[in-house]
Amino acid sequence: MNIFQSSKSFKQAFWGATLLSVVIASIGVFVIFFGERYHLRLVYAAYVNLLVVLGLQVFMGNTNITNLSHSAFMGLGAYIAAICVTPIQIKKLSLPDAPWGLNAFELDALSSALISLTLTGFLAFLTGLVIVRLSGIGATIVTIAILVIVHSIFMHRTDIFKGKQAFFGIPQVFDLSSIIMISIFVIFVARFFRESKWGIQLRASSDDEKSADAMGVNIFKLRLVAWTLGGLILALSGICYAYYLGTISARPFYFSHVFLTLAMLILGGMRSITGAVIGTILITFGLEGVRFMETGPTILGLKFPEMLGLSGIALGAVIVIIMVVRNGGLVGNFEIEQLFIKTRKNI
Amino acid sequence: MIDYVVQQSLNALSFGAEYALIALGLAIVFSIMGLVNFAHGEVIAIGGYCMMVMAAIAFRNPIVIIIGAIFASVIMAVFLERIAFRPVRYADATTGLLTAFGVSLILQNLFLLLVSPRPIAVTSMYFLDWPIKLGSIRISSLQIFETVATLLAILFLVLFLKRSFLGIAMRAASLDFEMVRLMGIRANRVIATAFAISGLLAGIAAIFIIARRGAVDPTLGFNPVLKAFVACVVGGFGSLTGAVLGGFLLGALEVGMLVILPQSYGGMKDAFVFAVIAIILVWRPEGILSPQKEKGDKI
Predict the structure, then answer these.
(1) Res. B86: pLDDT tops 90
(2) What's the whole-model pTM score?
(3) CB B149 within 8 A of CB B204
(4) How far apart are CA A108 and CA A95, in angstroms?
(5) Which residue in A26, A333, B83, B250 has a CA-CA distance of 20 to 30 Å to B181?
(6) Would you list the domain boundaries of chain B?
(7) ipTM
(8) What is the mean pLDDT of chain B?
(9) In chain A, which residues touch B (CB < 8 A)?
């Protein structure tokens, strides 16, 4: 295991990821056995968001550069897989004027997913070449530029992406148990990356760029690795999204989703995988409560008014409060295995 | 042909003026406290909503409405600094950026909740807009007003920064804030002034945006501010000259794209503009006129 600094960090990463997987799997299994049908859909969406948050964490948590383009990469992953996997008959109907013979072939689910991962990963690599050269704010602005570019391509190349309309007819490949398995895999990947020597070097460089540079850390290269890995995980989340819902449209891959997942990551604490998981769970459940209030329910005989926009206010408030009160998030640098394993003061 | 070029250049100038106006407001705050104020768009929107309210409660005089809107934006900017940005003043740039995002999200949804998710017509600024013909060139009076107002705002800002006591303090603060405080100048006053100025510029921008669109909705300021950010980054974040330059460059790029791109690609104008911007940033990662950073390199 020479990607790790020591066998200790491997052990920590392994047990941490295992514990989180147990938590994630038990929630999923509980829902599979006791949930109603519409619960399954909600929980599946929560798992997709978990994947997005983990993909975001790999870059943002280790480099401390705010990334706002993650929904764009998720969208790319979803659309590319969807275009490959949708049967020809349906594509002839829904994409009659698609260029480059996009509506004249179909592939099985696995090869579509692989193509989607390869292409999105390649795009992430290309954009990464630009991103890693920029310093904090500049990099964030370029991620916004990526989001806007991808979104306007989705919206205006209606011959390929259908724009605001739904891209339909994607066969349902995954169910809840498959995404639980994928989530566990991604938790392991993200956690291993965090504890690997690249992850540690990256986090050191985000704390003090000059010193890390002086110690011989190749910051650009490592950021590029983190960015590309993050892009791959985001593409995977997009594939999972498309493979369950059956229809996708460009709208969900824009600012509202960016903010939602960002709030999840920030609430838990972006430097730790445990934080990412906790934040996703808290916001998912919290938001269901807020959405219930939004519709204007009657509680104990009291009729509440319909309050559109309440969920947005709640998300914004979470971000602001966390940033003001505790800007490392709820758990900061803490990882779950520290409850059980005695470690030296965590880096 | 020459008429066409002049016509499009004038268009570019007025587009650029709007971006420059907003970008200046962002840059002045950033240069002093390193905050990327994404909530600037909502300061603009407050100006718009204020116009809507004032028009609804029967203020006929447009001058009163203009002054009211600018006043509302200034108050809003200073208020936001006090309640949201003061606690994160000394935190790192990422914390400030995310706080500003949160504030922006809260305000947008408050407008949605308290007013309406749909656009509401505000017609009281239409009087600024009438067509003018100069030979064969057709422009709108609004474009002239906008360009002139921006140039005036830049002029006054330069005078303020060079001549007034607070202005000099602000310029000093952008170089070394600690030193300025050691000289006995209150940090709160310098920063509040910076926010007040950014609010003022946002208010002016709000008037022109409303005059052109004739309606106000919760995301009124979001897209213009996104563009203005890009302008700031291209110009060199933290440099006021850079913000103005970036703003006009962006305006020129947008109009250029509209001219060059075929009709069917018109909707993808933003994609092309942002792509060009990304290329510029590859060429100059810190922006065109960025202040020299001390990163261990020889100065």
Answers:
(1) no
(2) 0.84
(3) yes
(4) 19
(5) B83
(6) 2-220
(7) 0.80
(8) 82
(9) 64-66, 130, 133-138, 140-142, 144-146, 148-149, 152-153, 155-157, 210, 259, 262-263, 266, 307-313, 315-320, 323-324, 327
